[in-house]
Amino acid sequence: MQISQFILYHGSNSSVKLPVWNSGSRFRDFGQCFYTTYDRATAQNWAEKQSMLNPVINKYAFNLKHMPTAELRIKRFNANAEWAEFVYNNRENAQYRRPSYDIIIGPIADRGLSDEFKKVKRGKATFIEIAPLIHYDRYKSYQVAFCSEKALNLLTYLDK
Fold first, then answer.
1. What is the pTM of this model?
2. Residue 21 near residue 152, CB atoms below 8 Å
3. Range of the domain at 53
4. Residue-wise pLDDT tens digits, 80-114
5. Number of folded domains that form the chain
6. Which of 12, 118, 19, 112 is CA-nearest to residue 60?
7. Distance from first CA to last CA of the chain, Å, rounded?
8. Are strands 74-76 and 5-12 parallel, antiparallel or unpaired?
């Protein structure tokens, strides 16, 4: 059996039937993109951070049938030094220009990684030095960031 689609979630303070990839802060893990996750509980957490009164979990089908013809540039990260440096540059480096990816998939950085970023920023550590401190099992939730209109066209809004 071949899987033709899978479900992604986006936590917000409202329904997002027509996502926009280039709105919001550019100083997020993967830059200015539309963020989703495989994990409904993670989306719930995102929604509650944005709105204690009206958290909304948006649900999307991600259609894999059209991916081969869409010619997407996809970057997949694991919890390692490359990922940490990429997240750091997006969050901390105002001069950084993210490579032109349509979709970026990778772990969600947490406060523990932010503490390591402070060391890098102060010149007390390098990404190679903090890499052994990045424990893969700590980053169980992954985010799927849609960074172009072409990529967003593969999403279909299902419901809240």
1. 0.88
2. yes
3. 5-159
4. 889 889 999 998 888 888 889 999 999 887 767 78
5. 1
6. 19
7. 28
8. unpaired
